[in-house]
Every structure is written in C-alpha cells, then in structure tokens.
Design a protein that fits this description.
EC 2.5.1.61, D-Maltodextrin-Binding Protein, domain 2, Porphobilin_deaminase_cofac_BS, Double Stranded RNA Binding Domain, 13 strands, 34% helix, 3 domains, alpha/beta
C-alpha cells in the first residue's frame, strides 16, 4: 500500500485526534504506511481577534481542505464542530467515529465550585454560544474573549486573572487532562449549556472521487453517531450558522426516544431561545427545531 498522507492542524489536540483516527484504522486494516502532514490554519494564527470577526468556522479547516482538493494529502481529520454546515465541493465526510463527551467544562482558577464564583466573575471563552449560555446561568458574569489551544488558554486564565474558562470536555479528555487536573472544574450539563453542533465528534474527510480511500475510511464510521450529528448539522444549515451566531444543538438517543435540544441567540435582541423535543423518528427534527426557533425570534422582533 502506498503511504497515506493525513492532513491536520498543527496543535497538540489536533495531532492527538489524528492519532486516535489512525489507531482506529489500524485496528481494522492492520499497520499501513502513513505520513502526518500538520498545517497552521488562519484560525491558529489570528489569536488576538474573535472568531466572529474574522470569518467563522472554516478558519480552522480551510488550509487543510485546500491541500485535500489539491491532492497533497489523502484525507483530513477535523473536529466536527469546526466544520461549516456545508462540506466543500468535491469533498465528503467519509467517516464520523463514535462520539466522545459532547459537554462543556468550566475550569476554575481559585474557587472549587460554580456556587463559589464571585459576583461579576470573569469567564473566558471565544464562543458566542458559551457566552450567551454562561450569562443565562448568571447574568452578572463578565465574559472575556480568550483563544488558543488548551495550554494557552489555561496560561491566559492565570495571566489575565480570570475566574474561569470554558473548554470542550472531549478535548480535555483526549489530552488526558482529567488524569491529573491542575485546576478545579465542573462539567456543564446540556441543560446548563447546550453543546456546539457536532461537539465531541471527529470528522474524517476525503475527496468524493477517491472511492478507494472512502471505502478504507468508512470502516471506522459509527452509524448511530453519524445519524445524530447529521441532524445537528441540519439544524445548523437551516440557521445558516457560523461563528458569528450563537448556536448549539445536541441530539441523543435515550431508550426508544430521541431527544433534540436546540439553542439560538440573537445579538440584536440580546436574548436566547432554546427548544427541546422528544421524538421517536429522528429524521427532519433538526430542521424543524431550527424553524421553530426562527419563528420565535421573528415574533419577539415585532
């Protein structure tokens, strides 16, 4: 077999996620020659500006996708939550493995619980979704923009004397941070903070025309995860969502039922709207919940 070239962001977490995908593939196919091609994206370079101001979700994948289209790599590994609702022309999501924890984690600098956070506590996040929902939990919170990889954000929490920062639980787990956490933390429930679309899931992308690679990658696809996150992505697509709109969605199967929660914030109204439904048929529910939330915002705007 020829050497397989894998593209990914050049960050500790992205490299770890790539190794997770390669381990899954090797369990199915055995050892194969591979070359990891790390890349620095625009989103990695422009850390002093909020994502909403510099172009949104594609910032973390554009350079990697360009290499994929050009044929300099054979497949790419992304965090699904970083991907726009529409996959780039000529590319396809060949595999979405089983999802990790989709939740958000609130890490504290000094206190040991949410209840101990001081009045007007300063919370760091670059996500409008997290900002809106943190203020829903406590309207006195002062939210400050903080970007960078996990290590950088933890360092900036200290440097800027923030009371806490919000990070994705899955990323912390993949970096083994919970094995020896150096700060107190709490895991936020989906009732407290609805996750980003696809949060906790990885996406393996390749060229649509590369049928051999698609078949190779599809062996690690997890159908149940894919079904759920695709409804979340339908929710995102209906809202035409990007990083400049506070959006969250979470689909989960409990027994015979599917639970779908959607979150949408409106910056002009300075309000947020949530809706949770329980259904037995999942198909179409993401679009339906998104349309309901849009209707609610339209009524509030009158």
């Amino acid at each position: 077999m020829k050497t397989v070239r894998v593209g990914t962001r050049n960050s500790p977490l992205a490299m770890k996620q790539t190794m997770i995908i390669l381990d899954l593939l090797k369990k199915v196919h055995g050892e194969f020659p591979v070359e990891i091609v790390p890349m620095t994206t625009k989103g990695d370079q422009m850390l002093s500006v909020s994502l909403a101001k510099i172009g949104g979700k594609g910032l973390f994948i554009n350079e990697v996708e360009q290499a994929l289209v050009a044929g300099t790599i054979d497949f790419a590994v992304h965090s699904l939550k970083d991907m726009p609702a529409k996959v780039a022309d000529g590319l396809t999501l060949a595999a979405i493995p089983e999802r990790s924890d989709p939740s958000d984690c609130l890490i504290f600098r000094e206190v040991t619980s949410f209840e101990e956070l001081p009045k007007k506590a300063r919370i760091g996040t670059s996500s409008l979704r997290r900002e809106f929902q943190m203020k829903n939990l406590r309207e006195d919170f002062q939210v400050e923009s903080i970007r960078g990889n996990v290590g950088t954000r933890l360092k900036r929490m200290e440097e800027q004397q923030l009371d806490g920062i919000v990070l994705a639980t899955a990323g912390l787990k993949r970096l083994n941070w919970f094995d020896a956490p150096n700060y107190p933390y709490t895991i936020l429930t989906s009732e407290q903070c609805i996750p980003a679309v696809g949060q906790g899931a990885l996406a393996v992308e390749c060229r649509s025309e590369d049928l051999e690679m698609r078949a190779f990658l599809q062996q690690i696809n997890h159908p149940a995860t894919r079904e759920l996150v695709m409804e979340e992505r339908a929710f995102l697509a209906t809202l035409n969502g990007n990083c400049d709109i506070p959006i969250g969605a979470y689909a989960v199967k409990e027994g015979r039922d599917y639970h779908f929660s959607g979150f949408l914030g409106d910056k002009e109204l300075k309000q947020s709207f949530t809706e949770t439904v329980v259904v037995q048929e999942l198909a179409g529910i993401g679009k339906q919940v998104a349309e309901h939330l849009l209707n609610r915002i339209a009524k509030e705007s009158l």
